[in-house]
Write a structure and sequence with these properties.
Length: 307
């Protein structure tokens, strides 16, 4: 079962009204969307997801609450294009929950888990051509090293990449547990005792397969363009690289321009259009962490359009 992370903080931060128009860019299994829909009886919810199974499940959940919603099967990087197709120019709130939903991780045939044996896959959108099997068996040593180093932040990226290239010369690496064994054999014993050695590598491959980092900034730029005054954008990240992108972009658009910073009277035209709702990222409470271990790396950042 999927448990929404930082749910109370996310919902409270949206400042929902009965007639709010809200975009959930990461519908998943409707954990956040179902609560939002209950609160916007006269408003409308647009929700994005690429996963057909999640869409089917969430459609049934949301239908029991109301009919004032539309689910769009697309990556949220197409936010503006898809909303304008539906004659939507401005919205009151946009949320992004960038984590992989638990059912995707738990469904072993999806190939996301390093604990379950399955064909290497890791696609959020199963109609996508690029999958984990292709990455592991076709990327060059340098490409594998790059994604393990940059996306997995692994100290052993080169050793693991080198071992993968050597093993696949003998036979293709087909399954998750085959890959896990190769990773384990590339990492010193003492490191294996600290944490599962495959965690960072599987994360890196998943990010590569789904272009997870590439789409964040363009989607945020579109969301800010479509936000009404008083509207808010909220982003939950689970990875330091995701959070770095979000934090940097929010700082850019919420900071006073460098050329006028420090002046006693700044003309309003030089003031930013957005403000940070909380100066620091909001993190889960101890109580939430006790109930949901997967929440431990989550961070929520919120901005509001002020002019």
């Amino acid at each position: 079962m999927h448990i929404s992370v930082l749910k109370n903080e996310l919902i409270d931060g949206l400042n929902l009204k009965e007639d709010s128009i809200i975009v959930d860019c990461t519908l998943g299994y409707a954990g956040d969307s179902s609560t939002i829909l209950k609160k916007i009886k006269k408003g409308f919810l647009f929700a994005f997801d690429q996963d057909s199974e999640a869409i089917e499940y969430s459609t049934n959940v949301l239908k029991d609450i109301g009919t004032n919603f539309t689910i769009i099967k697309s990556n949220f990087v197409h936010l503006e294009e898809e909303l304008k197709k539906r004659d939507v120019e401005l919205v009151d709130g946009v949320i992004f929950d960038l984590g992989v939903s638990s059912p995707q991780l738990d469904e072993k045939e999806r190939g996301f888990s390093y604990h379950e044996d399955a064909r290497l896959d890791m696609r959020m959108d199963r109609s996508s051509k690029l999958d984990a099997h292709y990455v592991v068996n076709n990327y060059s040593l340098n490409e594998l090293n790059r994604i393990f180093r940059d996306y997995g932040e692994s100290k052993f990226s080169y050793q693991i990449a080198k071992k993968i290239v050597k093993c696949r010369e003998e036979k293709e690496i087909d399954t998750t547990l085959e890959l896990v064994e190769i990773i384990k054999s590339s990492v010193p014993e003492k490191e294996k005792r600290k944490k599962h050695p495959a965690k960072q590598i599987f994360q890196a491959i998943r990010i590569e397969v789904n272009h997870e980092l590439d789409v964040i900034r363009p989607a945020l730029e579109q969301a800010t363009q479509m936000l009404k005054i008083g509207g808010r954008i909220e982003v939950i990240t689970f990875h330091s690289l995701e959070d770095k992108i979000v934090k940097k972009y929010f700082k850019e658009i919420c900071d006073v321009k460098e050329e006028v910073k420090g002046l006693p009277n700044i003309d309003s035209k030089y003031l930013p259009d957005f403000k940070l709702v909380a100066n620091k990222a909001i993190v889960p409470t101890e109580e939430e962490l006790e109930n949901n271990n997967r929440a431990r790396s989550a961070k929520l950042r919120i901005i509001e359009r002020v002019k």
